[in-house]
Amino acid sequence: MGWERVRHSEIPKGFLVERARYAQRRIAELVIEEDFVGTHVRRAAGVDVSFRENYAIGVAVVVDRDTFSVIDVSIAKTEVRFPYIPTLLGFRETYPAYKALKGLREEYDVLFVDGNGRLHPYRAGFACQLGLVIDKPTIGVAKSLLIGEIGNWNNDVAPVIYQGETIGVALKTSPRAKPIYVSVGHKISLWKAVQVTRDFTRTGLREPEPLRQAHNYSVKARREIC
DNA sequence: GCGACAG
DNA sequence: ATCTTGTCGC
């Protein structure tokens, strides 16, 4: 390492990228890739964050697996405190996402996060950061590839390899759509994460329902609350 | 050094 | 992510 150029202008005073990397190395050590989810995953939460002017709107929902219905919604508004910088997404979105999740009244077995988990240059993406804070099984789902190369497809799945290691999976949930990228956030194995993602994705739709719903509510909330 | 780069 | 209307197609 040694060099790191990052958009400097919008970074808050006192924030050192070097310290963020230190935190990420620590996060990477703390993440657990073993399954803490039971065989029956009945409820999943999903979080999404949208922005408007200098505000971030975090939305969390809980979805029932059998009916795909939304049984709880929580919305939180915070001030934006950090710019968007690839590989540092967690420092921008963890706080609003956390606040939204804390507002949920219903329980959930697993959490879906809109962004990568271990599929990150330091193996410490947004989903890992949030997963550790929430301390629940967490799955990262990104809509485009941040790093790595896609290996051989086996039906609808392909490993995402980075530095010789499979740290994510490309998943074609819908035949025509581009794949989504699944990776471990916390307390779950990669393969269980893929299975649960499948279980919560409605046929014909690209994203798992908790994330789709969280995003929908997030778009609505942005114009009603701001 | 160049280019790429989750949301 | 956000700024934005209609429009082509299943």
Automatic annotation (TrEMBL):
<dbReference type="GO" id="GO:0016891">
    <property type="term" value="F:RNA endonuclease activity producing 5'-phosphomonoesters, hydrolytic mechanism"/>
</dbReference>
<comment type="function">
    <text>DNA repair enzyme involved in the repair of deaminated bases. Selectively cleaves double-stranded DNA at the second phosphodiester bond 3' to a deoxyinosine leaving behind the intact lesion on the nicked DNA.</text>
</comment>
<dbReference type="GO" id="GO:0000287">
    <property type="term" value="F:magnesium ion binding"/>
</dbReference>
<keyword id="KW-0227">DNA damage</keyword>
<comment type="similarity">
    <text>Belongs to the endonuclease V family.</text>
</comment>
<dbReference type="GO" id="GO:0005737">
    <property type="term" value="C:cytoplasm"/>
</dbReference>
<keyword id="KW-0460">Magnesium</keyword>
<keyword id="KW-0234">DNA repair</keyword>
<keyword id="KW-0479">Metal-binding</keyword>
<dbReference type="GO" id="GO:0043737">
    <property type="term" value="F:deoxyribonuclease V activity"/>
</dbReference>
<keyword id="KW-0255">Endonuclease</keyword>
<keyword id="KW-0540">Nuclease</keyword>
<dbReference type="Pfam" id="PF04493">
    <property type="entry name" value="Endonuclease_5"/>
</dbReference>
<feature type="binding site">
    <location>
        <position position="114"/>
    </location>
    <ligand>
        <name>Mg(2+)</name>
    </ligand>
</feature>
<keyword id="KW-0378">Hydrolase</keyword>
<dbReference type="InterPro" id="IPR007581">
    <property type="entry name" value="Endonuclease-V"/>
</dbReference>
<feature type="binding site">
    <location>
        <position position="48"/>
    </location>
    <ligand>
        <name>Mg(2+)</name>
    </ligand>
</feature>
<dbReference type="GO" id="GO:0006281">
    <property type="term" value="P:DNA repair"/>
</dbReference>
<protein>
    <recommendedName>
        <fullName>Endonuclease V</fullName>
        <ecNumber>3.1.21.7</ecNumber>
    </recommendedName>
</protein>
<dbReference type="GO" id="GO:0003727">
    <property type="term" value="F:single-stranded RNA binding"/>
</dbReference>
<feature type="site" description="Interaction with target DNA">
    <location>
        <position position="84"/>
    </location>
</feature>
<keyword id="KW-0963">Cytoplasm</keyword>
